[in-house]
Amino acid sequence: MSKIKLHDLYFEPFLSEEKITRTVSNMALEIANDLKGEVPLFIGILNGSFMFVADFIRKYPTDCEVSFVKLASYQGIQTTGKIKQLVGINENLEGRTVVILEDIIDTGTTLQEIYHIFKDKKVKTLKIATLFFKPDVFKKELHIDYVGISIPDQFIVGYGLDYNNYGRNLPSIYKLTTKKMTNIVLFGPPGAGKGTQATLLKQAYNLIHISTGDVFRYNIKNQTELGKLAKSYMDDGNLVPDEVTIKMLQDEVNRHSNANGFIFDGFPRTSSQAKALDAFLEAKGESINGMIALEVPEDLLVERLLERGKTSGRPDDQDESKIRNRFNEYNTKTAVLKDYYESQDKYYGVDGVGTISEITVRLKQVLDRI
Ligand code: AMP
Q1: CATH T-level topology, domain 4-176
Q2: What is the DSSP letter of 59?
Q3: pLDDT tens, 217-269?
Q4: Which residue of 211, 242, 269 sits with most ligand 1 atoms within 8 Å of its CB, as the best mutation to test the pocket?
């Protein structure tokens, strides 16, 4: 499960369908146990409670009646404080055991109003049950008899609850996202030290490091379909086709939907990958904070790669013509991305010559700013 967009806002998964089902079922059994020998009238407060009431009633093990009343209290994500009129009670409530079923109680303003309307109707017993409760914002003296799940003061949608009428159909609960990810493209030609630095930075900033090269090599080693497809391109130092790489990257990002952010290493490598990445992140309410490029002269890079090839076991590191081909791919297809990110004011060049720790310090200086 990952983030969703409703109107202009983004929401992330918060409470699972299973947890809700279990809670509703427990509430029904607990209330039935307390009201043994009675035929209660459950009154759901529309619109938000319709799903809760429907599930609750199905779990209620003995005779009961159900009705709904309606009053609108929410406009957008702020409680308006104004309570509208209550409509829909046609039953004679005198002498009845009434249980109000609410989807959510936050400030309690709506509830208090409803409570007094019912109190005036000479009911025998009046109880309140709510699926969700926000103890931190509840301001009333009223006693809430049954609480399903207490939650912090966060705006939630799903399972009947809406944001400007959207989101009621979601079977689980989502909360409004407030935090933004830190997403970095670590850029530079082959051998610039992206992988080495990414490993250090991911720890320091608690980010997920995605190296498309590593993912491909993992797939080759495990002889997956993706690996078989990528191998011939990689061995010759050519780029793997965009469709394959973009899909793979999206899958990797989606596997970590709760991450603080990502270090993209070796991606994007073409303009269409960069555009796809922007569109993909935008659909999640996220974006690239910056491209940090390690700048290293080409001769030094060839030296570094040949040296690495002695131990890395990578066929594309061992042969100078393949290395040159990788530079050629880089210069013709990838280097243009500097302009792409520069035009968005997101390009940060860093001197990539020096010791590993010197370079890490330079990268951190940039990361701390963006
Ligand atoms: P790297 O480990 O980043 O040097 O990548 C090794 C090889 O994996 C490249 O030469 C390409 O064949 C392939 N590869 C990695 N990332 C990409 C990408 N974003 N687009 C296309 N091919 C890629």
Answers
A1: Rossmann fold (3.40.50)
A2: H
A3: 999 999 999 999 999 999 988 999 999 999 999 999 999 988 999 999 999 99
A4: 269
